[in-house]
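queue> pop job 88
queue> type: inverse folding (structure -> sequence)
queue> payload:
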């Protein structure tokens, strides 16, 4: 899964992101889902908080499957 932060005025779609990665990575590394978010969560030491991204992905899964 990819988390993407759009630039102001951008209208990039999920299909465009997936098509771009097809050319960049091996088939087994290709993304299957894209989530557009406002900002990447970071700690005070500017490290990406991956656990928060995982929680967002899981919460989105549960909310759409109900």
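queue> result:
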């Amino acid at each position: 899964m990819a988390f993407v932060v759009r630039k102001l005025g951008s209208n990039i779609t999920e299909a465009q992101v997936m098509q771009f990665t097809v050319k960049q990575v091996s088939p087994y590394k290709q993304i299957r889902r894209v989530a557009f978010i406002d900002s990447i969560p970071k700690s005070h030491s500017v490290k990406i908080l991956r656990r928060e991204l995982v929680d967002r992905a899981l919460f989105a899964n549960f909310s759409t499957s109900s």
